[in-house]
Automatic annotation (TrEMBL), chain B:
Annotated function: Part of the high-affinity ATP-driven potassium transport (or Kdp) system, which catalyzes the hydrolysis of ATP coupled with the electrogenic transport of potassium into the cytoplasm. This subunit acts as a catalytic chaperone that increases the ATP-binding affinity of the ATP-hydrolyzing subunit KdpB by the formation of a transient KdpB/KdpC/ATP ternary complex.
Stretches with biased composition (Polar residues): 69-79, 97-108
The keyword Ribosomal protein is assigned to this record: no
Keyword Membrane tagged: yes
Keywords: ATP-binding, Cell membrane, Ion transport, Membrane, Nucleotide-binding, Potassium, Potassium transport, Transmembrane, Transmembrane helix, Transport
Name assigned to this protein: Potassium-transporting ATPase KdpC subunit
Primary gene name: kdpC
Family membership: Belongs to the KdpC family.
Record field: transmembrane: 20-42
Subcellular location: Cell membrane
Residues covered by region (Disordered): 69-108
Coiled-coil features, chain-numbered ranges: none
InterPro entries listed in its UniProt record: KdpC (IPR003820)
From TrEMBL, chain C:
Gene name of this polypeptide: kdpA
Family classification: Belongs to the KdpA family.
Lineage of source species: Bacteria, Bacillati, Actinomycetota, Actinomycetes, Kitasatosporales
Parts of the chain that traverse the membrane: 61-80, 129-151, 172-194, 249-267, 279-299, 375-395, 416-435, 481-504, 524-545
Membrane topology: Multi-pass membrane protein
Subunit structure: The system is composed of three essential subunits: KdpA, KdpB and KdpC.
Name of the protein described by the UniProt record: Potassium-transporting ATPase potassium-binding subunit
Pfam families the record matches: KdpA
Keywords: Cell membrane, Ion transport, Membrane, Potassium, Potassium transport, Transmembrane, Transmembrane helix, Transport
Cited NCBIfam families: kdpA (TIGR00680)
Places the protein is found: Cell membrane
Primary role: Part of the high-affinity ATP-driven potassium transport (or Kdp) system, which catalyzes the hydrolysis of ATP coupled with the electrogenic transport of potassium into the cytoplasm. This subunit binds the extracellular potassium ions and delivers the ions to the membrane domain of KdpB through an intramembrane tunnel.
PANTHER family tied to this protein: POTASSIUM-TRANSPORTING ATPASE A CHAIN, POTASSIUM-TRANSPORTING ATPASE POTASSIUM-BINDING SUBUNIT
Main location: membrane
Amino acid sequence: MPTTTTEEPPEAPVAKDPLAPNPHRVSGGMLDPKQLVTSFPDALRKLDPRVMIRNPVMFVVEVGAVLTTLSAIKSPSVFAWVITVWLWLTTVFANLSEAVAEGRGKAQAETLRRTKTDTVARRLADGWRPGAEGLVEEEIPATQLRLGDCVVVEAGQIIPGDGDVVEGVASVDESAITGESAPVIRESGGDRSAVTGGTKVLSDRIVVKITSKPGETFIDRMIALVEGAARQKTPNEIALNILLASLTIVFLVAVVTLQPFAIFAGAEQTIVILVALVVALIPTTIGALLSAIGIAGMDRLVQRNVLAMSGRAVEAAGDVNTLLLDKTGTITLGNRQASEFLPVRGVDIEQLADAAQLSSLADETPEGRSIVVLAKERYALRGRSEGELAHAEFVPFTAQTRMSGVDLNGEERRALRKGAATAVMRWVRDHGGHPTDEVGPIVDGISGSGGTPLVVGEVSWQNGTAEARILGVIHLKDVVKHGMRERFDELRRMGIKTVMITGDNPLTARAIAEEAGVDDFLAEATPEDKMALIKREQAGGKLVAMTGDGTNDAPALAQADVGVAMNTGTSAAKEAGNMVDLDSNPTKLIEIVEIGKQLLITRGALTTFSIANDVAKYFAIIPAMFASVYPGLQHLNIMGLHSPTSAISSAIIFNALIIVALIPLALRGVRYRPSSASSLLSRNIWIYGLGGLILPFIGIKVIDLLIQFIPGLR
Amino acid sequence: MPSSLNRVIRHHLAALRMLLVFTVITGIAYPLVVVGIAQAAFPHQANGSLIKDRGRPVASSLIGQNFNLPLNKGQTSPQPDRKWFQPRPSAAGTTGYDPTSSGASNLGPNNPDLVAVIKARRAAVAAFDGVPPSSVPVDAVTASGSGLDPDISPAYAYEQVNRVAKAWGLNRPAVRKLVADHIQGRNLGFLGQDRVNVVELNHDLAASK
Amino acid sequence: MNNTLAGWLQVIALVGALALSYRPLGDYLAHILTSPRHWRVERLVYRAGGVDGDADQPWPAYLRSVLAFFLVSLLFLYGFLRLQNHLLLSLGMKAVKPDLAFNTAASFVTNTNWQNYSGESTMGHLVQMAGLAVQNFVSAAVGIGVVAALIRGFTRKKTDRVGNFWVDLTRVVLRVLLPVSFVFALVLVAGGVIENFHGIQSITTIAGEHQSLTGGPVASQEAIKELGTNGGGFYNANSSHPFENPNPFTNWLEIYLLLVIGFALPRTFGKMVGDNRQGYAIVAVMALIWASSVAIVTANELHSVSSSAGHLAGGMMEGKEQRFGIWASALFAVSTTLTSCGAVNSFHDSYTPGGGGMTIFNMMLGEIAPGGTGSGLYGILILAVVAVFVAGLMVGRTPEYLGKKLRGQEMKYASLYILTTPAIVLVGAGLAMALPGERAAMLNHGPHGFSEVLYAFTSAANNNGSAFAGLSANTVWYNTALGLAMILGRFLPMVFVLALAGSLASQQPVPVTAGTLPTHRPQFVGLLTGVILIVVGLTYFPALALGPLAEGLH
């Protein structure tokens, strides 16, 4: 089989492809310093103990801050006030991280709300039936629409609610939710019928059957999601919270019981110092940033135009073992492309190329364009414009004829057709020709390799007699997207199995699967097959992710652990999935998995960092507390901190500042490169474990060098 | 609820029966069998490795003894007898080497009392044996864990040779040889450390006279 | 041969012996914990006990059996001690006082074997062998049963059954503890350990004084005392007593016995989960901690100038036996505090601040390297769960260990477990230090006195049983407080372990992929060791600073 595949078809949207090969990384939005300022009032509002108690670690800090405040009022000193102020700042900084994360969502929600202006719905008073004429319309506010109502929307009007198109076809501007300005086509029936409230009809007239209750429309849900109003703690977050709470209790006990030990040693400690020690030890860094990490994770998805219906789904994405990927659009470019011309004996390849190009000039399908381009590139046949060919009459493709072509009625009269083998061969026979035997094997060969054969036939009239013959075959081939093999290798290293889903026959499917490098494929897939596959994988304990758009995908989408519905799909599909991709780009599933992983990694990394920090704080605080009675403990003051008060203050100030310093990281997520678990772990332990061990020694020393000049801390 | 209470009682009765079964097996049968075999196969060891003099036990070779002068009237602490090799200090019982009250001093390594007692022992042993205080070995000034340690270091045994030889009127080389004969090396060549069993040494010393 | 070389050789020989028993003993334990077949004698035991040997229990039922057995044992032993004067072979010993009887019963039932009494002057032969030694067997077996249930949690899927407590108990006693103890008891007798039913035998000593030699069935109790990591000595001086531990060879053997099950159980774990490498990883962590601790304590004890008494005496021989010396004493001290054994062949109170502090830290680690029979393995597995959780997050997946996901429920039980023991230790020690009357029980002053109290509660809550024995803990308050610490420190963790077992067993296992955190590589060994040291270090650092560190740093 000669490999004459065009290396990089010009149509391939390589540059725009979000799947650009290495180096790539999941990145999030940058933190705008202004956000810190604008979120400050929110951060203060969150000091309400009823809100704080949801975060046990920070609640302990707040209680500690109250205690030190009381103590500082009772017996004021510079030290007591420094600690008090910084404890309050610690709580505020924690709230700030959450407020900033939420603030970003709020801005998006604002934009969305603007689309929800007082839309008026033209409701069909007595419902809609197929083919019904002259129905009575009434105008009501969109908010009063009920499930099952039918509304009419015409060019220039805003669609009043989510629903399915039941009549007509229209181009719709969905930029309000997707940010994509190019209009999309929505039509009744099929998988392109769903419309979203708040989008605008640009042309034509459609009847929409409302499928969502008021207040529960897609936009409503989207607003709630990005604002974090619907945010619930995810399973993993709960588990981590439990661990953090128990560490907090352990450290509380350790410090409370320290007082009798200290009294015995003759070094009774003040409330201020004990509180400072507790706050320094409990995992405040991760406690402060935990909810911001979760919100930011959702936010990163939103920035990629994916709406996750729950944080649980985002987490599950990180755990996915099996990805079900639709062949078309995900693994291969949306359409097949011409890859070579195979003439029959007695026909020049140029002749065939020329005929193929001629017959495709009017063919605006991607396949047709690719034939023109192949002929031009390989055989230097420039594409001729339609006008250039006088007397040419183009014959469009129809489902009945299953072929298209051109009739040239110039000096020489000839007709060219390309299309399905059986159709073109019948056409040739009808015109008195005899297709040669070699066509059959060529066609079979192409089919067998996973390609699609298009047979090119010609009838020429010379001297009144028609001569019909087959010129050859065009090999149309699925073109695997650039960089997919590398991507699948990466997924394999991450422990994720890829399964290609296709309607093709097993032979074709196998060829493409091998070329793309997926682990497995499901050929001639029916929705039932898909469902069975998901259940089989899940029975083995695996988590499955898939994309889908059609109504018949809905059960599978619901069954999958991560079901990403395409926004272009039906409302049934969107209901069934737990994520919606507004760009309707099935490749995004891979990015979603990475964002899920990044979310967990960020939590784990900051937990490690937070706990590792404690070592340095001990070396600052313990000698400060007890070196007066046990001078030997001064040996533990390896940082050489100036005085007991400056040492404790430095630890607390470091503890507060590190929260602010890590807000950008929490929002952005830690760097994630797909690789094996072992190498990921090593990397993160070195950075966040060892870094967390060493950094505070430096930080506390630096702060101590600065604050030792404050009179009360000498 | 009576039925659930019943169940709880039944459950605990089963537990009690199981405990009784194990008491019979591991608490009665097992030690009886071991004692039986031990008495038949290793009677000497099983009965405490006793040293007998004319049929009467005078010591267990495993348990240290005091080798003091009888208490005079008005004396509170006994004085060591010059003619015996002296064992390590003992914290067992009020006078030391009391097998019904085994144990250590449990004084911390920086305890002033311990520091004081070590100083005092060093001076006393040096004076008693007529050697410079710096040459008194560690086992002579520290109490053992059990308070029943029958062993001393060879160094401490040799240190006492002059005094003992003089007290018995023996020549030193003979006593030194007796000590050398009583040095036990490490088990299997590498377990534990070299030692001299004072009880056996003194017993053989008395017998050699 | 010099002391250093001999010292190294005894360690190497010990490691060699333990390595040799790792596979056969571990595999054998795995076999008896999984085999569906009962021995005939076991059927007889079940019939006599009135239990169903074929039932497979859900975790609450398993727990109920554990607790019922505990309660019955506690009451039985308490009654035994209170009534001993009415029983055979009491040697004229009086009934044990209520608070001491409670403390002692709690102590032996919980595999702690803390002794606020002096065996030779308090306990008759019958109560030693049919009361205390019985618990040496069964409490050790209970620990192995509970860890077996936890391992079954990992290996089973979608079930609420974690095994049968009575079967585990019976098989471990009859097929492992009893035969091994029997053989080693005779070896110990051959080595000089006594085994008789004599009472107190008065002799006239060589110097003409009176001495009372105490007899008893010591060897039979000694073997299970070490094998079951119980540590309750027949005599007050425990394994430093020449009748319990007459020479360096029996000493080495006793160290081997107290470590052998703990170090073999990871093999049982690996075998049962079907991946021996998992066992190697766990045993590597245990060995790493144990070896480091041996090095630290030995170095400290050899470095006698670090304490004033050691400096004056010219060596750290206070509280140590001449026949053992520094090396064999340090090796025993480390091994006994890293298992929940608590037998001693030298007295830790008189150790250097560094060496003695390390024995406290060893216990604070939670008795996991290798720990008590069963309890050591479940302790380290819980810490492994915590380590896997944090590390699992860092590889971007819901953390999973051996195919079981660590979700909120699992983390709840693991968190409660790691919270319980430190809380008991610190609250207990805090109360004692807050009460002036209880502080007076210290023998030593200053930071060392505090270390005695800290040691006592650390030892009790971790079910070790050894002591900084200067503390006069035979008071009503200490007997009660330490008794409660032992019971809570034993059974609360068991509740959480069994609950975790149930939660794991109910899960459908997740397949292992390249994205799964591998838990058998050196990387995980390092990670787990780090997590253990950091979590424990952070928890106890302030307390240690005021005890051993304050004493040791000048």
